[in-house]
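Deliverable D2.4 — example input (structure tokens):
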């Protein structure tokens, strides 16, 4: 197998806990805490770090990416941007500036978001996202664009400092509208945890959709980890992580999330319902973590050998990039960096 890109998670959205649902002031998003996570990931040899984005939670992703660009030297910064929040030429300028600060170290995770205070139906929202991606593709590649669509009308030259090739677009989503945008515009189709059979079916479908547009996709997989020296220790740590969450509190946490009604989040709920009494839906894939958070709702739980075996199975399906995370993020980053990363043939996507 070829090498795989391994990323950690920057926790910019106040998503860091010792126990889910129990806030700790030292783990809230701040420059100090988030920079510590990113610099720890770089020192341990991770290839990339996802810098997530939310409307109101945590800190601004683009500003943090700019600051992190000048205190890191090797690690790539996978910077999440919400497509509904910015005028595309302005966003292109921001991305070009990030590339200027960290040449060759910027990728973009595009989120098909609403604008704060509005709600678009899935179809028009993803059509708007596609227009954003088309404009960013041109301007980020150093090409002028004359774009006249349903949402944007722009005739503009690229930012002077734009560096071709543009950053890769990481993009995910399970609805038909999301899959169509990914097939047309994404470089890396990013998936949340699921059973191996479902992952294989999804990849097959996305390859066919991309081929229809004369394109090929690469595939990424976003999942949490709870890795310990033994299976028993890992399962005990997983149980501790959700021990303070009751069902009512968990429902409230998930309902408050901006993506609570998405097809992807619904699928994470289906996995929890299909899991056994301990929360495992298949070997090492534990859905209990989704009791206390929305979005990516499952974790690989086990010994280093078990987690590595599961990662190898995903790689056999064609996964080329993993975005891992765990709680607390500094501690789990250290464990994964010591117990998992050295056993993987890994490096940035080429």
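Example output (designed residues):
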């Amino acid at each position: 197998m070829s090498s795989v890109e391994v990323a950690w998670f920057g926790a910019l959205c106040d998503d860091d806990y010792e126990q889910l649902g129990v806030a700790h002031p030292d783990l809230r998003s701040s420059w100090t805490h988030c920079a510590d996570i990113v610099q720890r990931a770089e020192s341990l040899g991770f290839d990339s770090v996802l810098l997530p984005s939310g409307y109101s939670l945590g800190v601004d992703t683009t500003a943090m990416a700019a600051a992190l660009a000048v205190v890191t030297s090797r690690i790539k910064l996978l910077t999440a941007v919400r497509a509904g929040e910015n005028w595309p030429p302005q966003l292109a300028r921001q991305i070009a500036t990030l590339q200027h600060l960290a040449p060759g170290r910027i990728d973009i995770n595009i989120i098909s978001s609403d604008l704060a205070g509005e709600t678009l139906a899935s179809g028009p929202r993803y059509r708007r996202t596609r227009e954003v991606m088309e404009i960013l593709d041109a301007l980020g590649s150093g090409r002028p664009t004359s774009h006249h669509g349903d949402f944007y009308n722009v005739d503009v030259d690229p930012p002077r400092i734009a560096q071709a090739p543009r950053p890769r677009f990481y993009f995910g989503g399970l609805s038909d509208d999301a899959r169509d945008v990914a097939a047309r515009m994404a470089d890396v189709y990013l998936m949340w945890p699921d059973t191996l059979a479902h992952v294989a079916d999804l990849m097959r479908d996305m390859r066919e959709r991309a081929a229809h547009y004369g394109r090929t996709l690469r595939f990424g997989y976003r999942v949490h980890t709870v890795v310990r020296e033994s299976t028993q220790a890992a399962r005990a740590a997983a149980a501790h992580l959700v021990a303070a969450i009751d069902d009512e509190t968990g429902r409230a946490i998930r309902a408050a999330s901006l993506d609570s009604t998405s097809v992807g989040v619904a699928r994470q709920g289906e996995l929890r319902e299909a899991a056994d009494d301990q929360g495992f839906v298949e070997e090492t894939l534990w859905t209990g973590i989704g009791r206390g958070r929305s979005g990516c709702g499952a974790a690989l739980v086990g010994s280093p050998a078990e987690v590595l075996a599961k990662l190898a199975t995903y790689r056999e399906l064609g996964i080329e990039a993993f975005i891992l995370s765990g709680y607390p993020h500094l501690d789990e980053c250290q464990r994964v960096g010591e117990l998992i990363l050295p056993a993987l043939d890994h490096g940035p996507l080429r």
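The chain has a mean pLDDT of 93.
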